[in-house]
Amino acid sequence: QAQLEESGGGLAQAGDSLRLSCTSSRRTYAMGWFRQAPGKEREFVGVVTWSNSRYYADSVEGRFAISRDDAQNTVYLQLNSLKPEDTAVYYCAAGAILGSSISDYDYWGQGTQVTVSS
Fold first, then answer.
1. Residue ranges in the chain whose pLDDT is less than 50
2. Looking at residue 70, what is its pLDDT?
């Protein structure tokens, strides 16, 4: 079992930056981020493994960056050049494989809201 807790969401204006954090109760191979906008399905944002392999969704490639601190069992999502369409609840997830599907992850956080105004 792993418990995940996100923090760092909030209000931002277009072009701003935010950093989200997710702390896990134990180390897992892959830690990913997903987001869910109102009325839409949850979608993959990015993932990092403990070997520092990273993979991003095309929609955030070049704007968002994932890093992890294994000493703290924490993963970060740096959101740069924010756009109104980035508004969503952002979820941290942990699992044993590198994947972009919801089913690839075993543990989920409660989510943190990011709202970007134009």
1. none
2. 87
